[in-house]
Amino acid sequence: MIYPVFLPHAGCPFQCVYCNQRVTVSGGGQGPLAGFAASRMADYANQVRRSGRPGEIAFYGGTFTALPRGLVEEILSAASAWVERGIFTGVRFSTRPDCLQGDIVEMLSSYPVRTVELGVQSLSDSVLKESGRGYGAESVYEAARRVKGRGWKLGIQLMAGLPGDSRELFLRSVRSALEIGADFLRIYPVLVLEGTSLAESYRAGLYAPLSLDEAVSLLAPAYDLAMRSGVAIIRMGLQADPELEKPGVILAGPYHPAFGSLVKCRWWQEKIDAHLGSLPEFPGSEMVVHVAPNQVSDAIGNRKANLLHWNSRWGITAKVVGEAGMTGMEMTWKTKSSNQDTSR
Ligand code: SF4
């Protein structure tokens, strides 16, 4: 469980070219931040008492460790009191890699920090520079070492489709994030949001976002890399939000309310395509794909997209069934005449 307290743009040294948290984060902090954080924590405490489900209290949005030191300590002291009372299991927050210097890490160590989410966005120096992030990849490596050195969980947030990025550079960033020990990833394709400098570049014809299909086909191999490393991608694409979906907020870009499902669906499609392509001949005309029950809808795809794809590309009838205890995938085949399993 994560109990998020959103502090939009709080502590940010400047507004990044693609970022407008006034539209991507609703229910965020307004007015004095310590008071807002305290009242959200009290609300969550009541919720936890009712549900009996403690979890980490998270300070998201903005750059938590770049807030004035006294304010960070005030918020963390209040959070620690709830942790001591068993309401929260610890503290997590998001921050920029260049805002996690040694003295700040030292200060944070006196509080029950469990997880740090770094808004890395890319591990390519050229992409970071073109996107005006204000730090290079070395800052990311340093911050990651500090987080891991304290035994905190490391989350890394990456973006796809940044100015100057390419498929190769993006996938290299994903590999690097996994190599430096990310415990989990979040990946967001860049959207052109009103009120950002990217919107101006877009209007001037200087920036073109990824199409939805390009973004999905870029994220599918990233998902594969993470799966193979045993690292979860806990979110792909911005969370659907009525504020975000208001007309005129997203000017362009690969937004879809179920973006993560589209990526997983594509991943299944490509995985099974590769397997089918490797078979000298098909053992039957009907393919049954056995997966874990929670994977069925992703493997079938939105509106049976994958079943239709396998039928049109390979001329077979496909079915996906959930099997408890299944890890990965198994395939069985039937022939239309016998309706019997012919191979597994
Ligand atoms: S991307 Fe992060 S650092 Fe940049 S403006 Fe948004 S919240 Fe602040």
For this structure, the CATH topology of the largest domain is TIM Barrel
Shape: globular
CATH homologous superfamily annotation of the largest domain: Aldolase class I
What is the CATH architecture assignment of the largest domain? Alpha-Beta Barrel
Largest sheet: 7 strands, parallel
Structural class computed from helices and strand pairing: alpha/beta
Main β-sheet, spatial strand arrangement:
1-2-3-4-5-6-8
List the helices and strands and how they pair.
Blueprint: E1 2-6, H1 21-24, H2 33-51, E2 55-60, H3 69-84, E3 88-95, H4 102-108, E4 113-121, H5 125-130, H6 137-149, E5 153-160, H7 167-179, E6 184-189, E7 192-193, H8 197-203, H9 212-229, E8 232-236, E9 250-252, H10 259-278, E10 286-291, H11 296-300, H12 305-314, E11 317-322, E12 329-334, E13 341-343
Parallel strand pairs: 1-2, 2-3, 3-4, 4-5, 5-6, 6-8, 10-11
Antiparallel strand pairs: 7-9, 10-12, 12-13
Bound molecules: iron/sulfur cluster (SF4).
Iron/sulfur cluster binds at residues 9, 12, 15-16, 19, 21, 62-63, 96, 119.
Task: Describe the protein's architecture and organization.
The chain is of the alpha/beta class and 344 residues long. The protein folds into 2 domains: 2-257, Alpha-Beta Barrel (TIM Barrel); 276-343, GMP Synthetase, Chain A, domain 3 (2-Layer Sandwich). The protein is 40% helix and 21% strand. The chain contains 12 helices and 13 strands. The protein has a 7-stranded parallel beta sheet. A 4-stranded mixed beta sheet has the order 11-10-12-13. A two-stranded antiparallel ribbon has the order 7-9. A hairpin with a 6-residue loop joins strand 12 (329-334) and strand 13 (341-343). Bound molecules: iron/sulfur cluster. Iron/sulfur cluster binds next to loops. Iron/sulfur cluster binds at residues 9, 12, 15-16, 19, 21, 62-63, 96, 119.
